[in-house]
Amino acid sequence: MVIGEFNESYPPLMDGVGQVVRNYTHGLNALGEKTFAVVAGDKDAPAYDIQTGEDNTIRTRMYPLPQVAPYGPVIKSRAFKKKVASIPFDIVHSHSPFYLGAFASKIARRRHIPHVTTFHSQFRDDIQGAIHVKWITDIAVKFILRHYEKADEVWVPSKATGEKLKEYGYKGEYVVMENGCDMKIPDDTKYAELKKKGLEFLNVENLDVPVLLYIGQHKVEKNLMMALEALKIMHEKGYAFLMLFAGIGPDKPAMEEYVRKNGLSDNVRFLGRITDRKILESLYSLSSLFLFPSFYDTSCLVMREAAAFNLPVLFVNGSCTSEGIIDGKNGFLADNSPESFAEKIMAVTSDGSLLEKTGNGARSSLYRSWEMVASEVRDRYKLIIEKYNTK
User: Fold this and answer.
1) Which 3-state string (H, E, C) describes the chain?
2) pTM confidence score
């Protein structure tokens, strides 16, 4: 098959959807399919592709806007459109309903090939955050829902995500296609090596306090200010910890300012964007607990990555990402309040045996390799093409 995976974000922009597209592309190519990532990027993206050997990307420019950076409008250049037009796609798969998602839908209609689309993120929140006017947001959401209604098949990474799409007004069917993890489960020797690498990266000899970790976009929609308030409560109670934030986003300066104002600078470190996956593995190896307070996300790649390192994740009750989590078995749950979040962090990080047991449960129930996912995706694509051609 000749396959197109369409999305605005792609590494080196390190968000979850971009990682999904990357792993679909690499996994399907490893199985012998001809797969292209049709994506956007900033001015540094082509150099990244050369440096990392990404030879299946077709790039156009995205121009970050301050209020939504690192995201922004995508301009489809003439060279980009010409390159895409030269590829005889058998199927296209869009991972967003916006610039390149609409482009994939148009290609499918014009060429009479099937179009699959995945609902990854709660775009209503993105629109509301940019526009701040509810009735305009409602109109925009209704317009965007047409993208999903016109597709030949709609995928979601979890049942809870599918129900969220239904809440938006989508009335069609959906297929659950769970995400995977590109990090391998380390043996004891590899684990020790990674832990040493993490200490070197942080420039410390050892750590004798619980290490808390967050990897992802720094934006208020992900409920990170609540998590910071929880850290403040812990600090005021005299509980020792080190919190590591890895990533970038429009609200990173506000988060840094909160840390400074509340005397948390010795307890919280902002590491910025990290594109080296080995460094990220070393941070997982060092950490005691991963914090993921988001209601915004519909799925959680970092949950599966953490599971590879026996690292449990703390979620908020009622979030999409907490689907399948049993408190104290394969992860932890807290109420959506700084007090509840703080109490849970202190309780579980004070119990090493509970952390180990829960981390083991996460590994056994949540870890899933991208090789498994790619095989399922390939088989599903073949069925969709066959069904489309028969119709």
Assistant:
1) CEEEEEECCCCCCCCHHHHHHHHHHHHHHHCCCEEEEEEEECCCHHHHHHHHCCCCEEEEEECCCCCCCCCCCEECCHHHHHHHHCCCCCEEEECCCCHHHHHHHHHHHHHCCCEEEECCECHHHHHHHHHCCHHHHHHHHHHHHHHHHHCCEEEECCHHHHHHHHHHCCCCCCEECCCCECCCCCCHHHHHHHHHHHHHHHCCCCCCCCEEEEECCCCHHHCHHHHHHHHHHHHHCCCCCEEEEECCCCCHHHHHHHHHHCCCCCCEEEEECCCCHHHHHHHHHHCCEEECCCCCECCCHHHHHHHHCCCCEEEECCCHHHCCCCECCCEEEECCCHHHHHHHHHHHHCCHHHHHHHHHHHHHHHCCEHHHHHHHHHHHHHHHHHHHHHC
2) 0.78
